[in-house]
Specification:
The protein is built from 17 helices and 7 strands. With 428 residues, the protein is an alpha/beta fold. The chain has 3 domains: 238 residues, Rossmann fold; 95 residues, Irregular (Cytochrome-c3 Hydrogenase, Chain A, domain 2); 61 residues, no CATH class. Helix 2 packs across helix 9.
Length: 428
């Protein structure tokens, strides 16, 4: 995979060497402001939309510095910024030239296209700002060039969304841009000014809270008020992407009971409709898409693996049952029928008050609820209670319980007798 230098070799201006490395000293004074330079490569802007919808923390909290202990973020976003043209681009040039008076982070949305391909035809794939070419004309600056120039001096480089983290849809088989991830573009040996490899927050689009929480965690480390968060072997926030979708799925209980949906709209597990949740690492379902609401399986959709490096090719065709499901789901059906019965039995037996057990009926006007046991339930219930009582000294109806009850009854009787005696004295 070509690195940043080779990627831009198709354009003579793009091949220009990067400016001197910007530096900053964190020990000089507390960090009060951090610039965040948002770059958009081969993207749909969905990552930006997801990020501004974040609730905890919000983008507004980050840019206003209202979170205690965290420096204020000065966000430079090509869509969200109020300035335009040369005024907007000045901060990018200052960061590249080492003229900023504060540290900065680079946030990349979208994959990095091979600008050599477009350069052969005198064009570009994605760009921001312009420069004066040798012939005096103004030519766009590819965003890949900005990433190459800004990354060495950045406190951290954060790739947002699956396109930026792994290549995503623009890097799928058959693409004409030779698009790649930020990691591929910067190379294995890249380290930020703070010694960090690229940080990856995948998702198509990512959960907005995942983005802002990661940024806030890095800011805490940068400001010296918190440790470096834990990242996994692919640079993902480990606390967000360690578990699979299946572990947090509201339908997971149906899987182990062998209950699967055969069409959309049903409440059972969606694995046989093409869901990849058992193997995909993502917190979409447990956290929700926005404000802890929504999420693919929560709203009846399947997981198509959009947070994984192999997306989309490795998970296509979508909406088709994965080959491994034929084995796992059939095994689940075999064991699930017994598991389902045990759970239903436990529900029935635990939903009876002591008095209802004695009289053999439930005084409910809502439905005909029986307190009597069938022969199967009676046998299971006998062994169920025996096993449940193993290892305990206190069991319902035991001699120990009756002795404690007698002691309590004597105490209450003596108290009542004393009260009656006091009442009689007052009357007399």
């Amino acid at each position: 995979m070509p690195d940043g230098d080779n990627m831009l070799s198709g354009n003579s201006d793009g091949a220009k060497k990067a400016s001197p490395l910007p530096t900053f000293l964190l020990d000089d004074a507390p960090v009060k402001e951090v610039h965040a330079f948002w770059l958009a490569g081969m993207s749909c802007d969905g990552c930006s939309i997801a990020t501004v919808g974040a609730k905890n923390p919000t983008v507004e909290q980050l840019i206003t510095g209202s979170i205690p202990g965290l420096p204020k973020i000065i966000l430079h976003h090509p869509v969200l910024s109020v300035t335009a043209g040369d005024t907007f681009m000045k901060a990018y040039h200052d960061a590249r030239d080492g003229k900023l008076d504060a540290p900065y982070v680079v946030i990349q949305e979208g994959s990095v296209a091979d600008e050599r391909i477009a350069g052969m035809f005198g064009g570009y794939w994605s760009g921001m700002g312009s420069r004066v070419a040798a012939d005096g004309s103004h030519q766009p600056i590819p965003t890949a060039q900005w990433l190459k120039d800004l990354a060495p001096g950045a406190a951290a480089v954060i790739a947002v969304g699956t396109c930026a983290t792994w290549g995503g849809i623009p890097a799928a088989s058959g693409n004409v841009t030779n698009a790649m991830s930020v990691m591929d573009f910067l190379g294995k040996d890249y380290l930020s000014a703070l010694g960090l490899p690229p940080i990856n927050v995948p998702g198509c689009a990512p959960v907005g809270d995942n983005v802002t929480e990661t940024v806030a965690s890095v800011l805490m480390f940068l400001a010296g008020v918190g440790p470096l968060p834990e990242f996994d072997e692919l640079g993902r926030p480990a606390w967000m992407f360690k578990s699979t979708v299946h572990r947090g799925c509201v339908r997971a209980g149906n899987y182990e009971e062998g209950k699967f949906a055969s069409e959309y709209g049903q409440k059972e597990c969606l694995v046989e409709l093409g869901c990849w949740g058992p193997v995909v690492q993502c917190n979409m379902v447990s956290r929700g898409a926005l404000g802890h609401n929504g999420g693919c399986m929560n709203t009846g959709g399947i997981c198509i693996g959009c947070t994984m490096p192999g997306f989309p090719d490795a998970f296509a065709p979508f909406y088709k049952r994965a080959p491994g499901t034929m084995v796992s789901s059939n095994l689940s059906r075999t064991t699930g029928s017994f598991v389902s019965y045990l759970r239903q039995f436990t529900q029935r037996s635990r939903n009876l008050a002591p008095q209802w057990r004695q009289v053999g009926r439930v005084p409910s006007g809502w439905a005909n609820v029986s307190a009597s046991k069938g022969s199967m339930d009676a046998v299971v219930g006998f062994f169920y209670d025996k096993v449940k009582q193993i290892g305990t000294e206190f069991t319902p109806g035991s001699s120990r319980q009756k002795a404690l009850q007698r002691s309590a009854s004597m105490f209450l009787s003596s108290a009542q007798e004393a009260q009656r005696s006091d009442t009689a004295k007052e009357v007399s």
